[in-house]
Amino acid sequence: MRSLEQSTGSDPAFLGYTLLVRTGGNYAAVERAVRQEIHTLDPTMAIYNEATMEQYLRDALFLPRLAGTLFGIFGIVGLMLASVCLYGGMSYAIIRRTREIGIRLALGAQTGEVQRLIISQGMTLVLIAMALGWAAALAMAKLCAAFLYGVRPYDLATFIAVPLFLSTVAFLACWVPSRRAAGVNPLTALHYE
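and the corresponding structure tokens:
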């Protein structure tokens, strides 16, 4: 670093010089005075790319913020897609068991017992998937740590909220079809398929 009063003619910078001006007040009020001082030191020096530190930081952080926003949008879309697929898959698996539910009801099982059995079997699968998913997410978070900006790789809120949301979707995917299937007349259920 050197002052502008030093000779820039004997050692010109082809890419230009950067001048940082610190002010406690409004930049617009100081801008004209800074331009005049530069012209006083060297009238041939061109002044360009003026920016406040806030503008400079906003421009410098544009791509990381854009990447973070896109990752967030794709994450939300992926979560919604996973929710729809999870609900559809679990619901289809339980609807396929309508005949089994009818047999259980015809043999004297109570509607509540059948529903609890189906929900507990479905949620057991969800718990196994959550355990495997957490392990995979922890491993991937370590790999993706370099791509994250302003977010810790092991974000506790994300690691709790997403599995909680998906397990709620899975519970609804088990409960709604099992309730519907348990309410069917056993004779109709036996003739199902």
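(Above: one complete record from the training split.) The first helix runs from residue 27 to 41.
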